[in-house]
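Page 47, continued from p. 46.
Same chain as before, 291 aa.
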Amino acid sequence: MRFGVAAAAVLLSTALAAGSASAQQAAPAPLDPAAVARGDALFKSNNCSVCHGVLGTGGANNPADLTRSKLAQTADGGRTLYSFLLAGKPDTGMPAFPGLTPEQGADLSAKIRSLAPQAAAPAAGGGRAAAGPPLPAALAGQDLSIVIGDPKAGKAFFNGAGKCSTCHAVEDGKTSPAANLAHVAAKFKAEKDLQNTWILPRVQNWSPRKDNNVTATAVYADGRKVSGFLTSVSDFKLVIRDAAGATQTIPRAKGEPKVELVDRLQGHLDLLQTYQDNDIHNITAYLATLK
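Result:
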């Protein structure tokens, strides 16, 4: 029996040693910073971030998340990625890069693999590591931008399908029904604030009491109308105010008088139902050029 236990211990020890050696062999080599830098230049010159984003996690048109793609993250010196890029996948919008060299494929692979989040280091004393996803090592310390769209496409949408130019001018000194957006990008410290504001320019916890954007008109059965800026409306009363802030309460019963509301920002509200992700990225990219 002791021989059996000893033999089992030897076998277990051998298996563990073999498994440890196998794990060490399977561990990918550290990334070469020079290859990552060359890959970064290729990533930019080939406009990869337009679709995949600066972080590689995806952008306009919902492309693959490169930080989670098994193909993109394969640690084989770029051979798998290179083979894929030569042919591309045109049916999904991924173009082919037939002029790419194997060396460039290896550099791009290093760049893309550098975007993968690194495993969190264990906390001191064996406790849990700090919560929250870590920033990819290659991006640590960088001032990352959300501007990943096409400014030309954004301008076309602004002047075309979005009809933004019917209300907003973008030239210095030109009057328009809504705010002139010349130099609008210079008014924001971060592009995300610019994007949040143009999508729906209302403050947090907005109510009609906070601005004069919504006009309410009480329409009586005899044709009389009373208008003012909306404060509140219910089945029982309409409260409006004038430009000086003086309020007027109009009782309502059985739906009378009828109430008509006109929101100055209705155009923004209507577009919320039609935007695609790439429309938002493209418009932000265009507005970011107006400095």
